[in-house]
Structures are given as structure tokens and as C-alpha cells.
């Protein structure tokens, strides 16, 4: 997908003006989205209840990013949102961050727009949810806005069920299609394929899950339309995931079902540690390890 | 440690003659070592016993390596030895393989002696043991003989306890020192440091375990002495690990202890998938995925 870089427009004064606007608005939106998502997940915990204890709740932990290239070492930071041991959500990590600084030379080839100027600014929300019930699918979502001498949006949503239900698969893909179609009639086919390509484990010759959408380097020239699409992806996530969870969370399961879920989670850990760009990139650039590895399952198994 | 390549002698007729001899003897020894190790582990399962079922046993599964550069696609193969769900050993994988073929160009920089001739031959034994009892340490051993236009031995043993006991730590390091001292008075200091350097997780700023020994590119000019050292490492493994397991396997443990072991195993999986040369190299070169990922824990956790 490297060729997709070519479609990014070179920066110009108009884009710069829009960016100044978004550098406030994007982080504000990601924080609002984090609140909405965590609220939705806590509401579902309330609905499920628990025979012996209070419903699980999110814990929020802020962190700072040190960057020696910046005044006062201030490279931005983020907030880790983590709920563990829920009746519905065994582990849900919903993180936001807004960071800035300079890329080291080894990343110039990988990050568009850093060839002549290494400075970057990035803001985003990233989440991974590992449910307790093996019949409730795991999910991952990421939405981000990145600015170098170029500017673009990226993100995606993908679903990882342990057991396949046609109804869930169809509803999920339809929700992804709807949000893309409202943005651009060509978007869905492209972003779906990109997702299938990306979330694949070559050494297992298997997909991580059932896919969804994945997009990067989005800059149509209309930054407001692009940002609205990013917001719509976040909202679509809330709607479809709440629906799928409520449909499956009361379904009875046994230890065989659970073990199959743990094996599926082992594959999930393999993908994230072996292939995921964000994970490897973050760890190799002294990112916040706790935030980056939030995606790993609470428990996983290998047979 | 790339500079260590420089110490390898260029191939000459004398070495070639020795190699022909070793191409039979090394695989024979690795097969014998596999038998001895599995026998030791099964004996310990017998000693421990189980209240409701027969002691766990190894299952052996041969596999073939396809290599289109070779006559009849015959790139060698190996045997996976796996024991699971034991009273003492939750998962023990003891693999041998003898493979040959041609490296693709992208590995010429990484593998000494392939600059002008891509053919290779490699034979070895690799094991990882994840015990049931959190007080029994996990262990990894690898011994291998590799031939390109150069020839060398490599391998090592390292221990990963969840709970530290000075007695175990001291006995283990002493065993490693003894086997090295009998080979070369300078070996232990070098191989211990190499091990500490290698089994380290930079993103956690922590060691995978307590270290041990790690060596590669060994070719002193006396191929028989080098091979004897490799054999001594295998024998030392059997003696010290049997001793440590028998010392701890009856120690009582609770679910908190077990959870700490699962967290430690999560770090183990992180290391193997993010950094381990053998794992990444094997997966990127279409190795046998089951054999390569045998090292992953049966169950692991992330908090």
C-alpha cells in the first residue's frame, strides 16, 4: 500500500490553515469519543449485572511523552482508559493520545512528508475489546489524524469473532459499508480489501478475524469532509458493537468454548506482536508500552 | 554481535572433510539427545504421578520441509516432540530438525558464508518447557550446527523463573559455568554476557529471565572439540533442569502464584514474537509454523 502515499497532496497554505483548526478540534473529538465509548461499554456492564459484585468500571490513567527534541521535553501524551474483569468485557482498552516531536531518520521512508522536515503531530483514539463470553466478538478500532509537511486521516474497524454467526457478520459489514458509502461511493470496496490484506497472518495462512475497513493517507482535499468521515466511523462503531454485544452476551458457554476463544486470542497476540505496524512502530520509537500493549488479550492460549 | 562473524575461518578442504563426518554425526546426536531429554521429562512425570489419570507422555510428529531449489523438493525436515497437560510439565516441546537448501538473497547479509553460494545445511535441537507449578522455572535450550561455505556451532540455555530462589539461580549459573570452563576458560564470561544481551525486552526494560549462556558462530578450528562442547551443553541441560524441577515440583501454589506465572509467560511470548531471531527468521522463510511456535506458552496473560 506504499503507493497510496503518492495520492497525498503536498502541503499548501490552505491545508495549513485547516490544520490549525483541526489541531484543536481533532483532540477534542477523540476525547469526546472516548467518553461516549466508555459510557456505552459501562452501560452494557450495568445491563448485564453480576451476582456478587458491582459492575466493572473504566479506570483512566494519563501519561506524558518525553521528547528531547521539544521544549521542556514536552512531546504530548495521552490517557489510557482500561476496564478489566467485567461480566461482559474481560478487558477493554480505550486510549487517546496527542503527540508531537521529530521522527528519527530511519522512519523518513515510512512516514510521508518527513523527507525534508522530521516534525510530526498526531492525534488519535485506539481501542481493543476482549469480551468475557466467547460468543461475543472481539473488536478493534483506530481513528487518527497525522500531520507532517503533509496531513491525512487514517483508521479502521475490524471484528474478531471466535464463532461465526451469519447475522453478526452481515450486520457488521453492512454498518461498515453504510458509513463508507455516505462518504464516497468508492471507499467501501477499497477499505474492505485493505482491511483483509492487512489483518492476515501469513505464517498461519489465516485471517485475524472477519475484517471490516482499514484506511490510511486519506486527504481528499476537503479536510472537513474527511474529518466528518472519521467521526462517522467512531459513531458507527458505537452503534454496531453495542448491537452485536447485546445480541450475544447472554448466550451460554462452556469451557470448550472458552478454550477456543483463548486460542483465537493467541493468534490475535501473534498478529499484533509480529506484524501490526502501530505496535512495532510504537515499541521501536519509545512509545508508551502500557498504552501500546493494551491491545494484548487478558488471557490467551496456544495448543 | 555481527562482528563475531569475522572470527569464522574461511572454508578449506580440512573443514569440508570434517563436515562430511559431522553431517551424519550431528543429526544422530540431536536425535539421541531428544530421546534422552524426553525420557528424563517423562520419568519426572512418573515420579510426580497424578491422582486421576496416567502420567503425561510425549507425542512425536515428523514433518518435511519443501524446498523448490532441491531435487524432489526435498529440503529435509524434522520431528516435533510435544508433551502437554502434564502434572509437572504443562507444555514441553522438544524439536529436532535437519534441513538444507538455498537462502534467498535477502538473507545473505545475515548468514555468514552465503555471499557467493546460497546453499546451506543446518541441524539442531530446540526445546522450551513451560511447567505447571509456578515455582518450577521455565527453560529454553537450543543447540545447532550450520554449514554454508563456512561452518559453525551455536546454541545456549536460559532459565525463566517466575519466582526467584537464590539456590536455584546459583546452581543453574554454576552448571553453565562448569560446562563452559571445561571447553575454554574465556567462554563463560562471553557467553553469559551474550545471553543477557540477547534475552532482553527493551520496551519493558526487563530481562526475559535470569539468563544463562548464548553462543553462535563457534568455530575454533578444532571441530571435534567444538562438537564435544555442544554435546556437553545438552548433557548439562538434562542434569541441571532435572535437579531444579525435582526441587520445586512439590511446592504448594495458589491462584495468585499461577497468575504471576501467566504474566511472566506473556512477556515470554512478547520476546519470542517481537525479537527472537529464530522465530522471526523461521516464520519469514516459510519454516514449519507448528515447530517454530512450539515455544509459545500453553496459556499466558497480560494485565
What features would you describe in this structure?
Two copies of one chain form a homodimer. Chain A has helices spanning 13-48, 166-181, 187-198, 223-248, 255-274, 277-284, 289-292; strands spanning 59-66, 74-84, 89-102, 119-131, 138-147, 151-160, 200-201, 206-207, 211-218, 299-301. In chain A, a hairpin with a 4-residue loop joins strand 7 and strand 8 (206-207). In chain A, helix 1 (13-48) packs parallel to helix 4 (223-248), helix 2 (166-181) crosses helix 3 (187-198) and helix 2 (166-181) packs antiparallel against helix 4. The first copy, chain A, is an alpha+beta fold. In chain A, the strands form two sheets. Chain A has a seven-stranded antiparallel β-sheet with strand order 1-2-3-4-5-6-9. A two-stranded antiparallel ribbon of chain A has the order 7-8. At the A-B interface, helix 5 and strand 10 of A face helix 5 and strand 10 of B. Strand 10 of chain A pairs antiparallel with strand 10 (299-301) of chain B, so a sheet runs across the interface.
Amino acid at each position: 500500500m506504499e503507493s497510496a502515499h503518492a495520492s497525498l497532496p503536498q502541503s499548501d497554505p490552505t491545508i495549513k490553515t485547516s490544520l490549525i483548526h483541526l489541531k484543536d478540534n481533532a483532540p477534542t473529538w477523540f476525547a469526546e469519543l472516548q467518553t461516549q465509548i466508555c459510557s456505552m461499554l459501562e452501560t452494557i456492564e450495568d445491563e448485564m449485572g453480576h451476582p456478587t459484585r458491582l459492575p466493572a468500571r473504566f479506570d483512566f490513567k494519563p501519561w506524558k511523552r518525553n521528547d528531547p527534541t521539544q521544549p521542556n521535553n514536552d512531546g504530548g501524551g495521552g490517557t489510557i482508559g482500561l476496564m478489566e474483569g467485567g461480566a461482559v468485557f474481560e478487558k477493554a482498552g480505550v486510549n487517546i493520545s496527542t503527540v508531537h516531536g521529530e521522527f528519527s531518520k530511519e522512519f523518513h521512508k515510512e512516514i510521508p512528508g518527513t523527507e525534508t522536515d522530521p516534525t510530526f503531530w498526531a492525534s488519535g483514539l485506539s481501542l481493543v475489546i476482549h469480551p468475557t463470553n466467547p460468543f461475543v466478538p472481539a473488536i478493534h478500532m483506530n481513528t487518527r489524524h497525522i500531520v507532517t509537511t503533509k496531513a491525512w486521516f487514517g483508521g479502521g474497524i475490524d471484528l474478531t469473532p471466535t464463532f461465526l454467526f451469519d447475522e453478526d457478520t452481515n450486520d457488521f459489514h453492512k454498518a461498515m459499508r453504510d458509513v463508507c458509502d455516505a462518504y464516497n461511493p468508492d471507499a467501501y470496496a477499497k477499505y474492505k480489501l485493505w482491511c483483509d490484506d492487512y489483518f492476515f497472518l501469513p505464517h498461519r495462512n489465516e485471517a485475524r478475524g472477519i475484517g471490516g475497513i482499514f484506511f490510511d493517507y486519506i486527504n481528499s482535499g476537503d479536510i472537513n469532509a474527511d474529518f466528518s468521515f472519521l467521526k462517522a466511523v467512531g459513531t458507527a462503531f458505537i452503534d454496531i458493537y453495542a448491537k452485536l454485544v447485546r445480541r450475544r452476551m447472554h448466550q451460554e458457554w462452556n469451557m470448550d468454548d472458552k478454550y477456543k476463544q483463548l486460542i483465537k486470542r493467541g493468534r490475535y497476540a501473534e498478529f499484533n506482536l509480529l506484524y501490526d505496524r502501530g505496535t512495532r512502530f510504537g515499541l521501536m520509537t519509545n512509545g508508551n508500552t502500557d498504552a501500546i500493549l493494551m491491545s494484548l488479550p487478558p488471557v490467551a492460549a496456544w495448543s
